[in-house]
Amino acid sequence: MKWVQLPLGPLQTNAYVIRNEEKECLIFDPGHEGEKLLGYLRQEGLQPLAVLLTHAHFDHIGAVDAVREAYHIPVYLHEEEAEWLADPSLNGSALFMMNRAVTAGPADELITGKANLKIGPFSLEVRETPGHSPGSVSYYMAEAGLVVSGDALFQMSIGRTDLPGGSFPELIGSIEEKLFTLPEETVVLCGHGPETTIGFEKAKNPFLT
Q1: Which of 14-18, 57-61, 96-100, 108-112 has the lowest mean pLDDT?
Q2: For the Metallo-beta-lactamase domain, which residue ranges apply (predicted)?
């Protein structure tokens, strides 16, 4: 299994494409620049099976409809943020994009609580990691040894908690209970910036040591 990081949009939000040898893939957090992302998928001859959102802030959802319409695939999102896709005041675009609303159609599959997903040949464990936003989740793929953390955990940092529904104590609890309990060699694919590992963040992250 292979993955690629594609920083997209004005905030350089990381979209991730995780693929197998048969060129089937999952797309995580397609934030902006739909044509750039679609161009990569076509260039590589990939067959997307689903879009998975770690949360519904505007910089993670801007290319959702472009990908969904191109490949007719489902979009997964935690039920806590089901209304955020269509509401710029909830997803933050009304505040940060100077009235350039970012919206997407409704999610096709709503995640409720901890879940195990089987999408084609891919197996994922959904871990609820609220704190940055109330419906934030992380996707753990044990076979690949990685977790897509969205904006919960970054290299040497954590997600901001001053946005609507954010909570610093809740985020710290999410990281300690849902992410730091993963194997230390687990690669963390972060919503912004470079990847890291659970072991490195447990030892070095100044917010958590």
Answers
A1: 96-100
A2: 12-192
